[in-house]
Amino acid sequence: MSTESSPGQGAPQEDHGWAFRPRRSVAGSQPYSATPADAADHPQPYWEQQPEPAVPSWDGTMPLGVPEFRADAHEAMREPGHRTSPDTWRDSGWADQESGYPSAATAVLDREALRHPGPGAAQSGAPAGAGGKRARKTRRVGRIVLTLAVLAAAGGAAVVMLKQEEAAAVASEKLTRVWQIPAPAADDALIGSWLTDKLLVRASSRGGLRAYDLTDGKQVWRAASAGTAAERGTVPCGMSPTVSAQGIGTVAFGKDGSTCTWLAGVKASTGKILWSLPLTSKKHPVAATATTYLQGNVATVVGVNFLGGVDLRTGSRVWGYQARGHYCNAYGWGADGVVMVDDFCLDKKTRFILTAFDGKTGKVIWRKAERAHSDVTHILSGSPLVAAVHTARQDAVRVFDTKGTGRKLAVGNDELTTGNETGADHSARLYGKVLVTPATAAGSPVIDGFDTTTGAKLWTQRSAVLAVPASDADGKVYAITTSGSPQLITIDPRTGRTTPVAGLPVGTGKWGFTSGTVYVTSDGSVLELNALGSHGGVRFYQ
């Protein structure tokens, strides 16, 4: 996502669009005529639904652009409140009070307790211990029994038995490392990845965009880096989390891994660049960060300079964001299926507005007025929309309905993230009505499960990293334990109950993951993609 301020509008001009502004393309295509933003003030001071702006015609060869930055609007946007540090808010103890779920009522279930609930588990609702077909593949160790006898003084005796079991279930199946790909450099940074039935496609700051055969790890293709592409920059700086049903994804490139100058549609099976469009122009020559997401055959581009959707097959424009005034600053964030924009307009009665757009069509899902700027730190799900929103008053993770009303998740002191300590990972996802997401608790990585209907935390899995399954068809959550001997496990999304699947090697060829992306293939193999080159490149276990 992008958290930089997008350039605001300049003085009133003939064209008022913020993204996909009308201008003549380098190839000489005819300019299109944009519909100016509505200059009328908003009739309602707080909650309001505004008419959708008209969508102008557009030539797919035209670059996207935004108006000049307005320093006066930018400064005014900062005035309403000083940004409170998220750590300060969490440490204050107010977060739990504001969430509507007292910390004592938050269910944080250790995986061992889930596997072996003690007396009273039926009353507390803790899930039963592991059993069934997997029981014969496990062994239990470390049983501790504590018995406390309390004798009554008058005419009888009462004995209270307190039993605590510390156990670990160990899978009988073991995976071994089949192949590995070293990182191209110690300072290599993972940008993103795709997993198909035959290939792993990896983008990184030093390795470029490459595809590897899953059977032996050999390189199948590398994205072209000659001619015009070389002049614009060939370093990946953004990548869609997935590919479409037709096997097409989007990748942004630039001179380095943090600034982007052009976007391309890439065929995952061959590496062929199907189309490209510039992310800079003569009026906006400075490259900036950009993220890209897919929703069917539409790819969204969310950046400091550009915001809109293009046809994934051709690169032609589908929709573009239009500023609602002449003197506006806007901040944009995206995820699969949704784009959120928080704007500030000096020439509007309602200065601050937070809007959610349908990523496929550009239509407004909901729009709400605010008293000050909101910063969307993470979008954890596009449908339903689940986002971590920071304001000057509080931090909260909310599940938004179609009217923009948000229900808070009972996150407590945990800090939720979309991936395993890197923006290149997108392992957070919905399993039915349960959101399963990586998080940080007291500085340590955990996995949390939340009921998106009630907002309650269902469970917490400690000492584990969340994996991305090749298919969500079985409804299982996959993870890798990080304490003791590493194992591939499944987690029941509703109860948090864990089941061991396979052990990973220790010693030579050992599991070496710290942060990044972990894939579980359809046959139960494991791919480890480290976020930093200093921790290795890619390892494949089978």
What's the SSE blueprint?
Elements: H1 71-78, H2 86-91, H3 94-99, H4 111-115, H5 121-124, E1 148-150, E2 158-160, E3 177-181, E4 190-195, E5 199-204, E6 208-213, E7 219-222, H6 228-232, E8 235-239, E9 248-254, E10 262-267, E11 273-278, E12 290-295, E13 298-303, E14 307-311, E15 317-320, E16 328-335, E17 338-345, E18 352-358, E19 364-370, E20 375-382, E21 385-390, E22 395-400, E23 406-408, E24 415-416, E25 429-431, E26 434-441, E27 444-451, E28 457-462, E29 464-466, E30 468-469, E31 477-481, E32 487-491, E33 498-503, E34 516-520, E35 526-530, E36 538-541
Describe the structure.
The chain has 542 residues and is mostly beta strands. It is 6% helix and 36% strand. It has six helices and 36 strands. A five-stranded mixed β-sheet has the order 3-36-35-34-30, with no helix packed on it. Strands 24, 25, 26, 27 and 28 form a five-stranded antiparallel β-sheet that branches. Strand 18 and strand 19 form a beta hairpin. The longest helix has 8 residues. The protein is globular, with a radius of gyration of 26 Å. The N terminus is likely disordered.
Summarize the structure.
The chain is mainly beta. The longest helix has 8 residues, at about 70-80.
Give the tags.
disordered N terminus, globular, five-stranded mixed sheet, 6 helices, mainly beta, 36% strand, 542 residues, 6% helix
